[in-house]
Amino acid sequence: MRAALRYLLRMVVSPLLVGWFWVMEHCTHQLCRRRSNFTEVLTMLSLLLSDSTYASFLDGVTQTCPTAIMRSLNEHILFPLRRHYLTQILATHFQDHQTVLDLGASNGKLASRLKRTLATRHQTIDVTGCDVHVPSQTYIPVVQYDGQRVPFADNTFDVVLMTDMLHHTHDPRQMLQEAKRVSRRYILIKDHYWRSPKDFTRLKFADYIGNKPYGIHLPYNFLSQADWTHLIQQQCGLSIEHQRTFRFNLIDPCKHILFLLKV
Fold first, then answer.
1. Could you tell me how far CA 103 lies from the centroid of its own chain?
2. Is residue 250 classed exposed, middle or buried when 0-12, 13-18 and 19+ CB atoms within 10 A define those classes?
3. pLDDT in tens, 83-105
4. E strands, 91-176, where?
């Protein structure tokens, strides 16, 4: 029975997954015209499955989806789509001639695109990356660190950018304190939040697809909005200058959150 289920997931669900993300990339404008009806359909489908069944189903998909398919989804659809949306969202929070630390930069593709976008607006930023894993090819200078101590002096950067990296840490407070230490003005966080068990399951699913093929550590340390506020204000003593929640488009399964923090 289990073998049959694995075969079904591999032969049917994986192609459907490819189709789903193709729709995310190519059909957003058409779906926007049917926003009300589409949202109602998603709500009805979500109600059909219990939290545990929903989690088991997505776990089954991730365990049977071939690594090659996940890599292809990431590199041809998901990562470019993510960079497109994030560049537009993040660019409004930078000023000319700022020094920026991209903490959790990976290969620096996002920061590189952000620099190019700001250049079209006649703004220049100097970006340095920092990550536990430094790929062989990077698009900005990236310095390796041990995941705990950021290898820069106090007050080195105008802005520390933390994009989808805190949920990969076991101690977000310690990492945010490090960002506070090396920043002299602002910390810009973009991450995720959840409200229901299904939200959390979807975040785990997306995190697995986007990171497992590359050996990235996955503690799934996602926070609720209340957890975020407590971490930022009570635990780290930072001031929230701006906050927003959003999704990339109407069929984005994940909830995103952004904070601009004053050091």
1. 13
2. middle
3. 999 999 999 999 999 999 999 99
4. 98-103, 125-131, 142-144, 157-163
Q: Which of 185, 172, 159 is nearest to 232 (CA)?
A: 172
Q: Is 238 helix (H, G, I), strand (E, B) or coil?
A: coil
Total-model pTM: 0.83
Half-sphere exposure of 16 (CA within 13 A, CB side): 9
> How crowded is residue 40: how many other Cβ atoms within 10 Å of its Cβ?
11
Say how far apart CA 188 and CA 242 lie, in whole Å.
9
Is the separation of the CB atoms in 250 and 39 below 8 Å? Answer: yes
CA 165 to CA 151: how far, in whole Å?
Answer: 17
CA atoms within 13 A on the CB side of 77: 18
- pLDDT tens for residues 149-205? 999 999 999 999 999 999 999 999 999 999 999 999 999 999 999 999 999 999 999
Q: Tokens at residue 85, please?
A: 């949306």
DSSP 95: -
Please tell me the distance from the alpha carbon of residue 61 to that of residue 9, in angstroms, as a whole number: 6
Q: Which residue ranges form the domains of the chain, and what is each CATH number?
A: 75-262 (3.40.50.150)
d(Cα 144, Cα 122) in Å, to the nearest integer? 30
Cα(27)–Cα(252) distance, rounded to whole angstroms?
Answer: 12
The two tokens of residue 150 are: 């950021």
Tokens of 7: 């075969």
Beta strand 98-103 with 157-163: parallel, antiparallel or unpaired?
parallel
